[in-house]
Hints:
The protein has helices at about 1-30, 35-75. The protein is mostly helical and about 80 residues long.
Amino acid sequence: MNGLLQKTKDAFKGFIEFVSDTRKELKNVSWPSRHELVSTTVVVIVAVFFFGAFLAVVDLVVSQLMEFVINKLAS
């Protein structure tokens, strides 16, 4: 039972040390400004829509080509 208690204490100490180190590191983080955050978010959203539309067009073209090839082979 004593071994279990010691392991529990060690685990708790390790957890406390982890939380303490994490808080120290978070103070060193260079957080973006609101303007930077909004502008990069807009860039990501625009890129997602652009690539989504691009892939939809490519999918449509490839599916039409495949349908054409299959119909030519079937006839």
